[in-house]
Specification:
UPF0301 protein ASJ30_10830; 185 residues; AlgH-like; 10 strands; alpha+beta; VC0467-like
């Protein structure tokens, strides 16, 4: 592996038509020679956060829904938070990269809330072997672009795919206008 993709976005190309990953935007949380793991940023579920984690609803970022992070371990919850500054994280928070942190959802909320600027809860995650992800990229399944903290906590995740591509400019900016079904164009 040349470079870790941790902290980058995997943006599905129009050729990726799998039901879960079509037009998805995945934040890569971890990537090394063996595995890659991330969460899908634009798959909100109809489930309020309190239905899964009672008491966490009030601190969750809009739209205050659980998001489907991927197809792996859907019965587990992952908390991703914005942690401003570069100070040492308090107990219960692990800084991953930049302002993006992982939250231990068993931690007392009164320790977490004052420290974070945003919080999103994901059911499950997306995972690949390093070779699997490299193969999907080689077959044209994913664009790799820089992430912005606003992408992770976007209030309108249903339009995130289009907006992330549009801000890339050039040919990727044009891809943002690709119709969902080109046969109907």
């Amino acid at each position: 592996m040349d470079t870790s993709l941790a902290g980058k976005l995997l943006v599905a190309t129009p050729d990726l038509t799998d039901d879960l990953f079509a037009r998805s935007v995945v934040l890569v949380l971890q990537h090394d020679d063996e595995t890659a793991e991330g969460v899908i940023l634009n798959r909100p579920l109809d489930t309020p956060v309190d239905d899964v984690l009672p008491g966490w609803q009030s601190g969750a970022s809009a739209p205050q829904r659980v998001f489907q992070g991927g197809p792996v371990q859907l019965d587990s919850a992952i908390g991703i938070a914005g942690l401003p500054g570069d100070q040492e994280p308090p107990p219960g928070i692990k800084r991953l990269f930049g302002a993006i942190s992982l939250v231990d959802l068993d931690s007392p909320q009164e320790i977490i809330w004052p420290q974070v600027s945003a919080l999103r809860i994901f059911a499950g995650y997306s995972g690949w072997s390093a070779e699997q992800l490299a193969g999907e990229r080689a077959r044209g399944g994913w664009y790799v672009v820089d992430a912005e903290i606003g992408d992770v906590f976007d209030e309108d995740p249903t339009t995130l795919w289009r907006r992330v591509l549009r801000r890339q400019g050039g040919s990727l900016g044009w891809v943002s206008t690709y119709p969902v079904d080109p046969d109907l164009n």
